[in-house]
């Protein structure tokens, strides 16, 4: 059965009759969960199964933002707390091998949590490179301020997720680290020259160009396209994301409903596809907005279908994991990082 090229959220901890009908009729490619969708492990697993049943697709991807730190949709009392990216950065500066080990372990444990629930995609790793004066929306989520280190830690996170049978989504391509505003509320413009962007922001993503999926940044880079954020810029997508960075996987937008984008939801969705994104992402569970997105979303076909199929095919079988031993090792490494940063 064909699907439409969008990923949708839903409103609560169980599907409403209206949402079930919407999913059946509009056939989204995948789904994304947030804290409003989470109560208990059994409830989340049931919701995930219901989403796939409504879609008529046993392999429909279910996504979540489970980074650790401030961005963790699954948390206590049912799920453990995971460290923010800055912890791996600190440990890497003390001993690069240990920093990579901690990043890989954390992601592997996260993947095990997700696999228990049937969640198959994590919107992780970040390759954003923050700079002084940037908005705190990235902040300690980042793996550092040097592109090579950021890429190395992001690769370790990717490996941990893949070892647990969970697909990674690289974000926020081609970089959110210089943004001076939170794109949930406002559109930031970065005026950094192209050659500096190539050396820093874009350089962190380039070694990760083989990842199966990536999420765009709602950020204007005036040196490349002063009129449009990367998400709706054909120039940014063709010249930078597909060109200079070399990413050839499935490209999804960041959330359509974020206020960094201009126009109504339908106009934003059209602009996303016109620019060259393969997939639109809508997160807030508002059924009227969901209908607007679906109404402007094409059937998944051509190169977008090829990339989506390749992304799903890249998912690997989980490797064995001793969770207790892995968590003990991760906690010891976190303690070491905390001591180093004190």
From TrEMBL:
PANTHER family: BETA-HEXOSAMINIDASE, BETA-HEXOSAMINIDASE-RELATED. Belongs to the glycosyl hydrolase 3 family. This is beta-N-acetylhexosaminidase. It comes from Bradyrhizobium amphicarpaeae. NCBIfam families: PRK05337.1. GO terms for biological process: carbohydrate metabolic process; peptidoglycan turnover. The keyword Hydrolase applies. It comes from the Bacteria.
């Amino acid at each position: 059965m064909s699907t439409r090229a969008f990923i949708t959220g839903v409103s609560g901890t169980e599907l409403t009759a209206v949402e079930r009908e919407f999913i059946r009729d509009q056939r989204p490619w995948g789904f994304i969960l947030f804290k409003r969708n989470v109560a208990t492990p059994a409830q989340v697993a049931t919701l995930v199964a219901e989403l796939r049943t409504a879609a008529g697709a046993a392999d429909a991807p279910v996504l979540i933002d489970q980074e650790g730190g401030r961005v963790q949709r699954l948390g206590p009392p049912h799920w453990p707390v995971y460290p923010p990216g800055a912890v791996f950065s600190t440990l890497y500066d003390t001993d690069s091998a240990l920093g990579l080990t901690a990043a890989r372990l954390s992601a592997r444990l996260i993947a095990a949590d997700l696999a228990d629930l049937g969640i198959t995609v994590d919107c992780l790793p970040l390759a954003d490179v923050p700079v002084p004066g940037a908005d705190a929306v990235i902040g300690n989520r980042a793996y550092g301020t040097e592109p090579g280190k950021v890429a190395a830690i992001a690769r370790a996170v990717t490996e941990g997720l893949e070892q647990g049978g969970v697909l990674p989504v690289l974000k926020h391509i081609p970089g959110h680290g210089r943004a001076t505003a939170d794109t949930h509320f406002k559109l930031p413009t970065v005026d950094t020259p192209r050659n500096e962007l190539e050396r820093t922001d874009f350089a962190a993503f380039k070694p990760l160009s083989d990842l199966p999926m990536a999420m765009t940044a709602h950020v204007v880079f005036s040196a490349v396209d002063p009129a449009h954020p990367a998400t709706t810029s054909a120039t940014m997508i063709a010249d930078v994301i597909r060109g200079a960075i070399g990413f050839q996987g499935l490209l999804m937008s960041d959330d359509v409903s974020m206020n960094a984008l201009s126009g109504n939801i339908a106009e934003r969705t059209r602009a996303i596809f016109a620019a060259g994104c393969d997939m639109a992402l809508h997160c807030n569970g508002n059924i009227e907005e969901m209908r607007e997105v679906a109404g402007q979303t094409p059937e998944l076909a051509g190169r977008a279908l090829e990339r989506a199929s390749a992304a799903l095919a890249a998912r690997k079988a989980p490797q064995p994991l001793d969770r207790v031993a892995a968590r003990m090792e991760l906690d010891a490494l976190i303690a070491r990082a905390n001591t180093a940063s004190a």
